[in-house]
Design a protein that fits this description.
The chain has seven helices and two strands. It is mainly α. A two-stranded antiparallel ribbon has the order 1-2.
């Protein structure tokens, strides 16, 4: 948390387009996964679970909603905000947009850890789609750490 605060207080150097596009593609995959689960939720359909068993247990548990809102819909919003933020950076090259967008990945990663804990230790079941979202959220968080560590202006560069 201290590093995140320090990174957010310092300017970010321009990030190469290919790095931004990789982040955009990962966020798009997360958005597609969360959108699919949200659509199926509102259709009242449990998606087929082929790699692991337990999708129905996870997707119908009391933990699948927060204040009556499907967790997958919260994921859609999360990934959409990331998509818009990264796309806005690509379009404007304003590094503060990317910096604050990448800061949001911290909260997505905390949510990922919570939901992985619930699946493993409370529900004893796994949902392949949820694991896919966990993977994209984790990749985005790792990408954010990499971008911050490589492109944050340090005191020696700022002088």
């Amino acid at each position: 948390m201290t590093n995140l605060k320090r990174w957010l207080q310092r300017p970010l150097q321009p990030v190469p387009l290919k790095v931004a596009i990789i982040l955009l593609v990962i966020a798009l995959l997360g958005f597609a996964d969360a959108s699919y689960l949200t659509i199926e939720h509102y259709r009242g359909v449990i998606p087929p679970c082929s790699v692991v068993s337990g999708c129905e247990t996870v997707l119908t548990s009391t933990y699948s909603k927060v204040l009556g809102i499907p967790v997958s819909l919260l994921g859609v919003v999360f990934y959409l905000v990331l998509l818009v933020g990264v796309f806005a950076y690509i379009d404007t090259k304003k590094t503060f947009l990317l910096k604050w967008t990448l800061a949001l990945t911290f909260f997505g990663f905390i949510g990922t850890l919570w939901f992985l804990y619930l699946q493993a230790f409370v529900l004893h079941s796994f949902c392949v789609y949820c694991l896919g979202s966990a993977a994209t959220s984790t990749l985005l968080f790792m990408g954010a750490i990499w971008v911050f560590s490589k492109y944050t202006v340090t005191d020696t560069l700022a002088a």
